[in-house]
Amino acid sequence: MAARDKVRIGILGASGYTGAELLRLLRYHPQAEIRALTADRQAGKPLGAVFPHLAGEGLPDLVAIAEVDWSGLDFVFCGLPHGTTQEVVAGLPRHLKVCDLSADFRLADTATYAEWYGHPHRAPDLQTEAVYGLTELHRAAIGAARLVAVPGCYPTAAQLPLVPLLRADLIDPDDVIIDAKSGVSGAGRAAKESSLFCEVAEGIHAYGVAGHRHAPEIEQGLSAAAGRPVVVNFTPHLMPMNRGILETIYVRLAPGATLADLRAVLEAAYSGEPFVRVLPEGGLPATRHVRGTNLCLIGLSHDRLPHRAILVSAIDNLVKGASGQAIQDMNRMLGFPETTALEHRALFP
Amino acid sequence: MAARDKVRIGILGASGYTGAELLRLLRYHPQAEIRALTADRQAGKPLGAVFPHLAGEGLPDLVAIAEVDWSGLDFVFCGLPHGTTQEVVAGLPRHLKVCDLSADFRLADTATYAEWYGHPHRAPDLQTEAVYGLTELHRAAIGAARLVAVPGCYPTAAQLPLVPLLRADLIDPDDVIIDAKSGVSGAGRAAKESSLFCEVAEGIHAYGVAGHRHAPEIEQGLSAAAGRPVVVNFTPHLMPMNRGILETIYVRLAPGATLADLRAVLEAAYSGEPFVRVLPEGGLPATRHVRGTNLCLIGLSHDRLPHRAILVSAIDNLVKGASGQAIQDMNRMLGFPETTALEHRALFP
Amino acid sequence: MAARDKVRIGILGASGYTGAELLRLLRYHPQAEIRALTADRQAGKPLGAVFPHLAGEGLPDLVAIAEVDWSGLDFVFCGLPHGTTQEVVAGLPRHLKVCDLSADFRLADTATYAEWYGHPHRAPDLQTEAVYGLTELHRAAIGAARLVAVPGCYPTAAQLPLVPLLRADLIDPDDVIIDAKSGVSGAGRAAKESSLFCEVAEGIHAYGVAGHRHAPEIEQGLSAAAGRPVVVNFTPHLMPMNRGILETIYVRLAPGATLADLRAVLEAAYSGEPFVRVLPEGGLPATRHVRGTNLCLIGLSHDRLPHRAILVSAIDNLVKGASGQAIQDMNRMLGFPETTALEHRALFP
Amino acid sequence: MAARDKVRIGILGASGYTGAELLRLLRYHPQAEIRALTADRQAGKPLGAVFPHLAGEGLPDLVAIAEVDWSGLDFVFCGLPHGTTQEVVAGLPRHLKVCDLSADFRLADTATYAEWYGHPHRAPDLQTEAVYGLTELHRAAIGAARLVAVPGCYPTAAQLPLVPLLRADLIDPDDVIIDAKSGVSGAGRAAKESSLFCEVAEGIHAYGVAGHRHAPEIEQGLSAAAGRPVVVNFTPHLMPMNRGILETIYVRLAPGATLADLRAVLEAAYSGEPFVRVLPEGGLPATRHVRGTNLCLIGLSHDRLPHRAILVSAIDNLVKGASGQAIQDMNRMLGFPETTALEHRALFP
């Protein structure tokens, strides 16, 4: 970067929803200069052909990855599918800083990766090098990183409320139940029957129960916080909305701990944070209150069951759960103010 | 009833969603003859003025309750708001059999009622007389009842999977967590800001956490099943769909119990039931699979947490959660085949 | 059929939405016996694998078309894609009566077919033999037909209000503008990006403007009614709902004609019809008032522009616009009462 | 304003959707300082009590109008109901510049106002003083105005495509048909049955046909453009989305005019405009492409009917149709760059 004013950015896999969201948000970044957009199957088309709402904005046409002149770039956001990502990133010149939005570099443990993804990692060195990009919890390491793995949407909404409580030994690490509800954009833009309007509208269902790949990612973060292996119940549901994740988290209090203790620890953990807000007593978040923002809202409630408590967190899965956090990470990696391009009020209704 | 072919039915509070749903379903009932429809504030209007989709069906005009000729009726469905219901039902002639869809007669214990509703019950004798109308679990009593309290929507979806497991001592009664998601029709047709399209669409939020009045109703049923007082976590969420309730229920297995045991007990409990289906291994229900039907679908899953399991139940809140179950109860009370008017395939998509 | 009680039915292409809807409705048909369900790519699976809401209903497994024993069938509903349909139907034994839901046999004129579909028809004899199945308008011919082409959803909602008016010379055939709004199920169950939840929810857009293949089908019907060639403006829009078509039709009155004349003609045309209802003055239909029903509701309004009028029609695109009308046609073809299996009240909300 | 850096702003009626949208957008305005927010029925509450998504943003508490210290304000946005607005605005000190979002000052003709609103205007002087705030069409007058009437959402989407064509005599003023589709936020935040989720979701219907109060507003603008009285067909529909208006406009070409002429005139009219975009040939807008933006997209299509054409316009009813245009007007009234706070990319999906 050195003395140049602007950071020259490439977005790989720009024709998906996270690509569109990066472009929406980077509009507000005075130092961001979009120089390359790739989409192999759409190469040669103007961006407006895949995203009419981004036509006429002066953004580059889509090209194939092979056509990118890497020397003209400083920074890459990678929004490719998991599996193929690791080889693409391994092939990038080392002068590039990279924020990867896939799952490929999120799991630090190679055995865990192989277990959940069914094959050994094909870029194990990079897997080790990569820093986990949950900004509020790994800020210093992100600032020094060349390759950041942007966390999954569900794991972001789970770890922000849970990690401080586990670090403070306020909840039982062996009794964490995460009931998560997500909008459909989390499934990406691939044409799948299960993402069709008629298969999603006017209904809700659980999926990936006890087998979703975000479970080991959550457990990795909670284990580090607890100082010992943690296994969780993570039960995602698909519901009829474009954006948003709500996680209702059921926890058992550690002996002697109270709901007030939980609140105090969370408020202290996030008191200076621009994007994480602990709601006042009686307040519980709604996903529509974070739509389009990089916020994570956290509410706490007592439970009718003794010695238990309820946490509720809400994020926009495409912002704090993906592209917004990626920009937040970029801001740290490049020394920009962390909130640049991310200070939005929610689009409601 | 005796020798007459048809049962002459009145519906009190016919201008709400449960009223409309009764009328939709009773269309299929060969013995049902709709003789009176009340809606005090809409008295004098044709039914089509409040429900255009029911215009032209030959149904009676709306009248005030005071105008009803009770001697011309055999059976009453009461869909009035809670609180006012108890006085109205207390004033009905005793020759009428009654299915009440409000909450007024669901709680058998007067102290519990007073605690949750803020005033002593105004018809305590009827509260004692009323039979709780969860058909599959109280069939015999319903058959002999004059006054049936149709269960709440959430309690129906909670008790059907949980009661057999508690009766069989297969789960820990002190560790039941019910995460419920409901469509908006559950809030009724009253013009409230919180039910506006723009306040509900494209989002989800929890409400009534640790304080919803369906909690004591659920606990009443589970306590009876467990043979001792049970308290539960019941956490409802409002989501953008017209109909449907999905409950994801997290349970701790009793010592020695396995998921296979739970499945065996539920399959045995409901093997002959027309409206409750335990899905085969690997199957989990979606609300869209029960839309418009009187079904309750139940799925089971193992949990990554040891010694725990996950149950998922789905109903249409307006059918099995209200008007359908009311008709099912009526069928029992009057000696009709229980499935009359209720054998529908789901409207999907 | 002769002396047999039940008609033995096969459904080709049963894994799409029209297939599911046929199965939902045929549940109410006392003479219908479902004997074969085909879905080439899903052959060998139980029906519940593609439609969980139809599991446990005792319906046949899915098979490939080649596996069907035609001698065991009396009647076939064909829900295959256009283009392939004509060859499949041409290969069916002649003892079968057929209701085809594709577009392949709707256009009687071979040149028009070739112009709009880009190739000559591959079964021109059948194209000539086929009877257009808009029941109210072609009842006699349908009763005598072996092969019926079930009309498109848009053309059904357009022709029902317009044909009687053109027959009576009450409107100008050269100034008909049809602004149509459809739910997403009209696009079928194919996994296409344009049908994804996130591409449809929270928005509306026009598509196929001045080029939709339902235009020539509408024009065919209107031309016959007017007694001379008619061209129309037909502008469809895709909107975020599962089911329903609303058509707002702008017409110019013939010299001397009044709105009252239009009303009188439509009321007379449909006075005895079970499924077409002309709303009283001031009434305009909503798609939610026909959800799940075989109804077509028609409303009329004066226009602020002189010598003009507005017609609004509403149908459920999967029922009167597809599977319901197919059953209505079958009832005529086989001599059953026309309303059998089709007398439903709308599912609202 | 003079030498002060910031404009001190009050928002009257801040608890509605247009109020929330003003606050969302003014977040991006470097010269805007929110000093007073009124909501008579919510006076005394923090803003977060009515808009949780705006809690924690440092915005003022809600007060009653009577409590406002007008001397501390420079500019007022008025988002009160029509009817009451005229008296409130009449009572404001004259040093305040005012953008009114109600309908009270949109109709310049007092007789027309009285006819459509059922009573004489109560501030006829202000009605005369007010400038109609469709920025692109009345820029100079807005710049000099003290009181601006922000246009209605429907009239904005209608006039932007139609006015240049009428000014250029390219279309027949006596044959304009506007089929409009709106999201529910256009109905405001009042708790009305017709705005309930269950009354709107999964359906569409026309309303206010031939009687909507936006018709005379549209006609006022088109009459001025045509140089003679114009009457239009304006047919609005309510559909299940939060935001967005799509208008499909059917026009008859003037003798000799072609679609290319229409395109040329519209492109010329809006070539330098930041917020109005004429899509290239073949392009038609979707409401989701303008969500959250101040854009109006316009597409043109030929019509199968000879000598006719189709125009399609899309806006976000809360932005270009209300609060965004109000800020655009404020920018002109106060000499700020017109695009300040309004340069957003659409939130998609």
Helices and strands, with pairings:
4 copies of one chain form a homotetramer.
Chain A: E1 7-12, H1 17-26, E2 32-38, E3 62-63, E4 75-78, H2 84-90, E5 97-100, H3 110-117, H4 124-129, E6 131-132, H5 139-143, E7 147-149, H6 153-167, E8 171-182, H7 197-200, E9 205-206, H8 214-226, E10 233-238, E11 245-253, H9 259-270, E12 276-278, E13 296-302, E14 308-315, H10 319-334
Parallel strand pairs in A: 1-2, 1-4, 2-3, 4-5, 5-7, 6-7, 8-10, 12-13
Antiparallel strand pairs in A: 8-11, 9-10, 11-14, 13-14
Helix pairs in contact in A: 1-10, 6-8
Describe the structure.
- The structure is a homotetramer of 349-residue chains.
- By secondary structure, chain A is an alpha/beta fold.
- The first copy, chain A, has ten helices and 14 strands.
- In chain A, the strands form two sheets. A seven-stranded parallel sheet of chain A has the order 3-2-1-4-5-7-6. In chain A, strands 9-10-8-11-14-13-12 form a seven-stranded mixed sheet.
- The model of chain A has no long low-confidence stretch (mean pLDDT 96).
- Chains in contact: A-B, A-C, A-D, B-C, B-D, C-D.
- The interface between A and B is large, with 50 and 50 residues.
Oligomerization state of this entry?
A: homotetramer
Query: Which residues of chain A sit in consecutive blocks of at least 5 with pLDDT less than 50?
Result: none
Protein chain pair with the most extensive contact, residues per chain = A-B, 50 and 50 residues
Number of strands of chain A: 14
Please outline the major beta sheet of chain A: 7 strands, parallel
